[in-house]
């Protein structure tokens, strides 16, 4: 077996990643990361208005 324990450590807690939960060490850490992603994308207060406006213009070409 190759050095499985030398793989990248869990990005959440730093423990050796478990092959089953790569790149995390456990399902719990995978969940934590997932949560970070979700809450992160929800918390981004970017100028969404501008993006929406652009999209509107793109689809505004439709003949109505
Ligand atoms: Zn972990």
Keywords:
single chain, 64 residues, mainly alpha, Erythroid Transcription Factor GATA-1, Chain A, rod-shaped, binds zinc ion
Give the SSE layout.
Elements (H helix, E strand, L loop, with lengths): L26 H17 L4 H12 L5
Bound molecules: zinc ion.
Zinc ion (ZN) binds next to loops.
Folded structure, characterized:
The protein contains two helices and no strands. The protein has helices at 27-43, 48-59. It has a domain at 4-45: Erythroid Transcription Factor GATA-1, Chain A. The chain starts with 26 loop residues before the first helix and ends in a 5-residue tail after the last helix. It has 64 residues and is mostly helical. Helices cover 45% and strands 0% of the residues. The model has no long low-confidence stretch (mean pLDDT 76). The relative contact order is 0.10. Zinc ion (ZN) binds at residues 10, 12-13, 15, 24-26, 29.
Q: Could you estimate the helical fraction of the residues in percent?
A: 40-55%
What are the bound molecules?
zinc ion
- Tell me the number of strands: 0
The ordered H/E elements are: HH
Derived from helix and strand composition plus strand pairing, the structural class reads mainly alpha
- Give the distance, in angstroms, between the N- and C-terminal Cα atoms: 63 Å
CA gyration radius, whole angstroms: 20 Å
Per CATH, which architecture of the domain at 4-45? 2-Layer Sandwich
Beta percentage is under 5%
User: If you average the pLDDT, what whole number results?
Assistant: 76
Give the biggest sheet.
none
Ranges where pLDDT stays below 50 over 5 or more residues in a row are none
> What's the total helix number?
2
> What would you give as the CATH superfamily of the domain at 4-45?
Erythroid Transcription Factor GATA-1, subunit A
Shape designation:
rod-shaped
Q: What name does CATH use for the topology of the domain at 4-45? A: Erythroid Transcription Factor GATA-1, Chain A
CATH class of the domain at 4-45: Alpha Beta
